[in-house]
């Protein structure tokens, strides 16, 4: 594997980027979510890039303006369209053999890709898209019900309940949350739906089963959407070894579409 570090100009600032070289004709552009560095949580994106490059796929990761090693002001995911476009243009320049580029993001990076109209990518892989606004930071009723079902199947949790170690006030509050109606889709969720409706390339939506962001997304989305794939035991960053393997396989499939 050969890894290079780049400085990419973007509206008068410089984006720090890392390129994992490979000879494949389809590349992966990884967009970081939140204020996360391009290495990703627990270096997950760095490890993922190396693994994909070893399989023949070039990968570019970058810090958006104002994050990590990049200069400038951090305008958040809604203000990152120019950063993604600059990174994609540099990626194509550095890897002229590429015929397609798939954009991949977790959380608000996934949302940023859609809000940017796909940002010039040929395909999208969106993991746990961020659709939370204001009061919708509360867990959706479906997620609360799922959590209580898991607890009721766990003998240790039942023993805690019978021994009085569970707060009855908290239990009642939780049950009330489980019975409330599902909230309507947020404005951001509607924007994402609209953006995907106009995007012409293939899309995969990956949902981690133990992630609240994914649960909130699915509560306001069509759960029968054929573009959705679920990893039941995964946390937000797919950090578990089996979850990381699942994510890798999903990306390999997306890169071959």
Description:
With 257 residues, this protein is an alpha/beta fold. The protein has two domains: 2-133 and 185-256, Alpha/Beta hydrolase fold, catalytic domain (Rossmann fold); 141-179, no CATH class. Helices cover 39% and strands 19% of the residues. Helix 3 links the parallel strand 5 and strand 6. Helix 4 (141-152) crosses helix 6 (168-179). The longest helix has 16 residues, at 241-256. The two termini are 24 Å apart.
Q: How large, in whole angstroms, is the Cα Rg?
A: 20 Å
**So what's the overall shape?**
globular
Task: Provide the domain count.
Answer: 2
Please list the strands of the largest sheet in the order they lie side by side: 1-2-4-3-5-6-7-8
In whole angstroms, how far apart are the ends?
A: 24 Å
- Structural class per helix/strand content? alpha/beta
Q: How much helix, percentage-wise, in residues?
A: 25-40%
Question: Which structural traits does this protein have?
Answer:
257 residues, Rossmann fold, 9 helices
SSE diagram, text form:
Layout: E1 2-10, E2 13-21, E3 26-31, H1 44-54, E4 59-62, H2 81-94, E5 100-106, H3 108-115, E6 123-127, H4 141-152, H5 155-162, H6 168-179, H7 187-198, E7 203-208, H8 212-219, E8 228-231, H9 241-256
Parallel strand pairs: 3-4, 3-5, 5-6, 6-7, 7-8
Antiparallel strand pairs: 1-2, 2-4
Helix pairs in contact: 4-6
């Amino acid at each position: 594997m050969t890894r290079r570090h780049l400085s990419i100009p973007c509206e008068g600032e410089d984006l720090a980027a890392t390129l994992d070289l490979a000879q494949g004709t389809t590349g992966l552009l990884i967009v970081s979510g939140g204020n996360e560095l391009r290495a990703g949580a627990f270096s997950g994106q760095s490890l993922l890039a190396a693994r994909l490059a070893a399989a023949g796929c070039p990968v570019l990761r970058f810090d958006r303006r104002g994050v990590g090693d990049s200069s400038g002001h951090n305008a958040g995911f809604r203000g990152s369209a120019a950063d993604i476009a600059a990174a994609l243009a540099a990626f194509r320049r550095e890897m002229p053999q590429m015929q397609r580029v798939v954009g991949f993001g977790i959380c608000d990076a996934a949302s940023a890709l859609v809000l940017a109209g796909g940002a010039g990518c040929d395909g999208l892989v969106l993991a746990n898209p961020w659709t939370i606004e204001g009061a919708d930071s509360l867990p959706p009723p479906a997620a609360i019900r799922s959590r209580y079902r898991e607890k009721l199947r766990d003998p240790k949790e039942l023993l805690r309940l019978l021994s009085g170690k569970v707060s009855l006030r908290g239990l009642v509050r939780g049950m009330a949350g489980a019975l409330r109606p599902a909230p309507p889709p947020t404005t951001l969720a509607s924007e994402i739906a609209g953006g995907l409706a106009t995007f012409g390339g293939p899309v995969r939506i990956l949902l981690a089963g133990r992630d609240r962001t994914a649960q909130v997304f699915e509560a306001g989305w069509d759960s029968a959407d054929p573009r959705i794939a679920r990893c039941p035991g995964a946390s937000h960053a797919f950090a578990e070894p089996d979850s990381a393997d699942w994510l890798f396989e999903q990306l390999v499939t997306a890169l071959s579409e």
